[in-house]
Amino acid sequence: MPSRAWWIAYSAYSLATLATANWLNYNVPNPYMDELIHIPQAQAYCNNQWLTWDDRLTTPPGLYLSSYLVSRLLQLVQYSSPASSSSSNCSTLSLRSLNTLFLLLLPLLHSTILHQIRHSVLRPSTRGKTTPSRRAIEQRDRGEESWEALALALFPVLGFFGFLYYTDVQSTSWVLLGLLLAKEKIWYASALACLISLLFRQTNILWIVFIAASSVVHQLEPKAELYDLPLSKARFPDVPASLLSLLLTFLNSIPTLLPILISFVPIGAIFLSFLIWNEGIVLGDKSNHIPTIHIPQLWYFIAFEVAFLSPILLSFGAVREAVGGLAGSGRRIFFSTVVLVGMVLSIKHFTIAHPFVLSDNRHYVFYLWRRVINRTWWARYALTPGYLVGARMIYDRLAASSTLTLLPFLLYIVSISLSLIPTPLLEPRYFLLPHLILRLHLRPRGISRKEMRLRLLLEATLNIAVLAGTIWVFGKRSWKISGFEGDGIGRFMW
Question: DSSP string covering 270-302, please?
Fold first, then answer.
């Protein structure tokens, strides 16, 4: 159980979250950016206008349905009329407040997931047994995992949109709840949470597949015929052998896997029906969200991860280890050179500059593209060694964390690839679930608990600084703008 000090810190986090929400609503009282579409749609539902739908919307109606349900619940509690309910419980402030409530729940959700992940990686022979040594380990680590969860809950991209009426916080929370319930082997509840997540963002199907497939791997782990090595021992030639063993073991173990299959296969059938009915995965405005081949999205994601995970990744030893892993022998130099050339070619032939990135100066990505990635013709290529070293550092830390074996790691790589590569728009919100799932599987780098705690403190400090800075800039550094829908005020945001 978390300590008294943690509950005091959590109370401070909650008060700061509520105070920030109040400050932002005071300084930005009117809907902004995507809220100009989301909020009127939610208010239409609150008024029982079920046939009203804005064709510019590209995601399902889960956000508006959740707001409608909450507004009706508040109406029952307050004994108010439907008219007053729709006006007060579905105001801009009220709609934003629902996302803020989810922000308050994130530390508790993260803490429980961390505990499940950290204590499900013991040897199969000891997993599930309560031995004195395991009980002592859990009691020692549970408190530290709670502190780590607070640092994760401060992640600035998710935190920022948690104060606005966007889909991200609720969508992410439902996927993470599905992950947690799958770790606890409550398959039907996990599938239900995953299905609900699809009502917020249809691309969550990729992470549902990751959750279901990872659950299958964990169920098959005790079987000797499954070839699934720890990441620290896995090598590239082990990949085809592992995949083949997974296929064969799966086919021979279907009766054992029935609870998982019965829970998750219907979700696949429902989603396939949606794709056929909708003639694709994108709802509404398909013209600006045409699936493409945008391989550099993976390299941008690596840079994003290194930046936000730097407190738990970086050290001279980590860089030296990564460089040694890439260039420690002639064979490694050759392989790294081939990968580096492939990265350069992917940047040359598959870089996409979306019109939104080029024209909308209200987003930080606009300036990142102009002043870093596309500053000169060669700048985008000069970043490739950094991408490669960053990817190796992440892999080394993940391998040392001992929370993922080879097969779940491969599933993760496939999931982020299918999630990011078809997306033409460089958008930090698309990195949310890939980041959080990776971070939940990473242990902070450190040779001692004191160093690990210091790194967690640095991570929390970085998150707070970026979150506070972006919210302050959003609320205070506005300017008059024309040519965009809204109140004529421009603001900087992710």
Answer: HHHHHHHHHTSS--S--TT------THHHHHHH
Cα-based angle 147, 148, 151 (whole degrees, multiple of 5): 95
- Rounded Cα gap, residues 431 and 427, in angstroms: 8
Question: Helix, strand, coil % (nearest 5) of the chain?
Answer: 70, 0, 30
Among 299, 305, 308, CA closest to 394: 305
Report CA-CA distances (Å) from 308 to 152, 312, 331.
11, 9, 32
DSSP structure class, residue 368 = H
The one-letter code for the residue type at 221 is E
Which of 86, 98, 203 minimizes the C-alpha distance to 161?
98
Site of tokens 């596309």? 374
- The amino acid present at 73, given as its one-letter code, is L
Kindly indicate the confidence band of residue 280, based on its pLDDT and cuts at 50, 70 and 90: confident
CA-nearest of 26, 92, 33, 37 to 362 is 33
Cα-based distances in Å from 149 to 106, 293, 387, 407, 425: 8, 35, 27, 26, 30
Please give the average per-residue pLDDT across 223-247, as a whole number: 92
Residue type, 223: K
Q: What is the largest CA-CA distance in the chain?
A: 76
**CA–CA dist 83, 86 (Å, integer):** 5
Highest mean pLDDT: which range of 124-138, 331-345, 440-454: 331-345
DSSP letter for each residue of 179-202 = HHHHHTT-HHHHHHHHHHHHTT-G
Q: Which two tokens stand for residue 284?
A: 């509404």
Q: For residue range 48-100, list pLDDT tens digits in order.
A: 999 999 988 989 999 999 999 999 998 888 765 555 555 678 999 999 999 99
Place of tokens 């990744």: 313
The verdict on pTM exceeding 0.90 is yes
Tally of CB atoms within 10 A around 52: 12
Q: CA torsion sign, 413 to 419 to 421 to 422? A: positive
Q: What percent of the chain has pLDDT over 70?
A: 93
Element containing residue 445 per DSSP (H, E): none
| Cα-based distances in Å from 348 to 289, 327, 345, 379, 381 | 22, 24, 5, 12, 8
What single-letter DSSP state applies at residue 385?
Answer: H
Q: Which of 301, 332, 466 is nearest to 394 (CA)?
A: 301
What confidence tens digit (pLDDT) does each residue in 183-218 have? 999 999 999 999 999 999 999 999 999 999 999 999
Whole-angstrom CA distances from 269 to 212, 261, 283, 367 are: 14, 12, 18, 42
Q: Is the pLDDT of residue 369 over 70?
A: yes
